[in-house]
Amino acid sequence: MVSMVNFDNQKMIFTLSNHSISYIMEVVDGYLVHRYWGKTITHYNFSNRPMLKKRTFSATPNIDQPELSPEFIPFEAPTSHMGDYRNAAVCVINPNQQDVVRFSYVGFNILNQAPELVDLPFARNSDEKVETLIIHLFDDISKIQLDLNYTIFENHAIVVRSSTLKNMNSNKIILEKLLSASIDVCYSKQNLTTFYGTHQKEYQINRGDIHHGLFKIGSSRGNSGPQYPPYLAVSEDATEFHGEVHAMTLLYSGNHEEIVERDQYNNLRLQIGLNSETFSWPLNQGESFQSPQALLAYSEEGFNGNSQVFHHFFKEHLINPNWTNKARPIVINSWEITYFDVNDTLIRELIDSASELGFETVVLDDGWFKQRNSSQTSLGDWTVDLLKFPYGIKTLVDYARKRNIGFGIWFEPEMISPNSELIKKHPNWVMRAKNYEPILGRNQYYLDLTNNDVQMFIINTLSKVITECGINYIKWDMNRHITDPFSPINDHKKPGQYFHNYMVSLYHTIDQLTKKFPDVLFENCSSGGGRLDPGMLYYFPQTWVSDNTDAFDRQQIQYNASYLFPTSSITGHVSVVPNHQTNRIIPLNVREALASSTNMGYELDIIKMDSDKKERIKEHLKTYKAERNLILNGNFYRLSSPNDSNSCSWIFVDDNQDKAIVYHIRNTYNTYDLSLTLRIPYLDVHADYLRFETNQIYSGSELANCGLAFENIKGDYQVNKIILQKIVEN
Fold it and tell me: Which end of the chain offers a freer environment for a tag, N or C, measured as fewer CB atoms within 10 Å?
């Protein structure tokens, strides 16, 4: 069997390689340096090794090699105070209380599996061939070991990177920074792509030139946040369809940072990991710290190709296997129908209407528990409001089951209201700084999940509801960010230690519940996409991508989120107009198209709806069910971008390119557009396709190169749905 990880003892070269990518490192004078990350190469003989020369002001550790300065060595794990003045990836306060650490290469191991982390999400093993290279670095003075972990899978253009630091000294050290990946490459006029956003406007694209200096994004909010999700990509003249793209993301849901630094010699340093400004971790003798895993994805087929790398990897090695290929239920959610004003009679009527129309799960959103009539009260008091539901929740679940409908319920388990019975009983369960009142966010406090009793309270509370009521769906919400990163009972003097402890505690809590109830669908939500990251995807197979259901804003949100996330991991609902978030009025067929391009659901009031509209919804659900497997399990490609054009379009196509569904949305009507044309690649260019709507036949090469023309209908917000079927000759 040919190994994917190899070491050339003569050249001191490490190579990770499969049919899609190669990743190459060299040991130079005890330093581990980066040489290549990109398309597969068959043999490496230092062709791109830089020609170095002595430079004034450059440190020279080896007097016999004055040209070999840390200032321009492409390190895999750069540290401070050794002549490399760029951003470090590792920072340790050693036993002498100085932040100096100098690692040298000492050896390596190769494993025939992917490492399974104890407290963090990780790339899962499967039947696929996988190998892990662990390179050992050691500081012989401070007695600190640094292991750099590299995992490669046979069928994926991804390298999984992380770092493990262990204190071998008899005295305590303080770890101040441990990034998951750091790569130095040459600047060649690449562009940088990241994302920014806010509540109801998540995943907005940010693309531009890379200038000299340091560019940094990230989160210090205690969560990954909608402001700057953990992602960066560099590309030179790449489009959605062509060109090389190198991208990074992080399997983590807490504070993070992404850094791109262009130095005076036109080298680029790309880094990703825990936010070093909000991190600090003490290590006693024998203790170690494991960084989150970073995913390094490469494609020579543009941003669509890079997205495919992430999509396939997430489906095969990140999402819970229980849900990878399972059809997700079509839900009707009570929130925009009633908000807090829910009751037994209304939910029974909702169940009746949902069963009649073909929905598969009714979700009872916020407002179901005791005295919860607004956002200002009762979080933590997870007992049924008997004034609203005098017969309890189980009777509703049973009622739904008799009508062949599943039943879901909303929780915000990490939060507590100042007006609650729980806070009176357990005031020390609130996250807070000593001597200061905790700061409110959305009229609520954080529970201190680093307290084991709080973890057990959440696990037992949700377990009781799931077991006693028989629900099959949990919407797990989180609606504020951390302001008081301290525990009343645990001695975390530095908030940097608390932030990571909180995230590990959250992962543990979720892990216990999802393993205990493998058939319950847990949906991730944080006021929509406030915690939409690969770390949460490990536990929750889908995320409510935004509270904004407006079909104009949703185009950008869904389009850009697909840079990372497969369709199966995103949920979208058809909602009422005028839209509750924007007051915008957009036709129903456009709203249907956006929702149909996700795990689809509704928030319309189907109880009071007239018969014609009900019949319309019934047909929509029937169509979606017939197309659901292609939409959720097929390949998704972006065709035209709402970021810089008047349209938004994408295609779903199966693995064999036999069937495709194209959605094209044109927003503003322009009189100068006589007709619209859309190129449709990603089909079999050697085959013909039948377009169902018109019964016309086109070749795959014609659709890819000439495009498909259709009428530019008057009026804003028009949608074209195109269904293509390959013609197979007998």
Answer: C
